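User: quick one, fold this
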Amino acid sequence: SLSLPILRTSRAQHRAGTLTLGTLLTALGETSFGWAIVVFSLVTLLPLPPGTTLLTALPLLVTTGQMFLGYPHVRLPRVLSGLRIDQDRLRRGVLRLRPITRRLERILRPRYITLFARRNERPLGLVLFVIAFALFLPVPLSGWFPAVSLFTVGVGIVERDGLVTFFGLILGALSVLLTVTIILSLAAGADAILH
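Assistant:
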């Protein structure tokens, strides 16, 4: 199960009082981009006050940016890796995603793995950075979509499933489109009020 390693690891670290973004990632076995994207998009989906995506999307911007720049693995700045995570909120976030993870688990398998070839890593990183940027913008109603699409892509990368990754990217492109549409309509509304 996809969510079990995250829950099991976070529970153990929570008991030990060491649950931070950095320790959770390291304990998941590697500092791979896939796991980082899964964990960080999960954090943005936690029940948090509005506007928090400005903070929670930062690790995603760093991760996808490093992927685009050709880093071999994720290197989190100390400020971000030391961020403490609330175990109960994390559990609630994971459970909220159960309908999605259950469906993904049924279909996940390694396929179309050429998508993950070294030469494709940077273009993939660039697209993911744009999606993460859409998530970062504090636009009302738009945050959920980029986060879910990044979560789907992350899972696809972890499981080496090119089809699921591609589906996540399409979802991401649609969420960027939605964010741009909302921004433009807000701008048009503000313009109408001012003039």
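User: anything notable?
Assistant: The chain has eleven helices and no strands.
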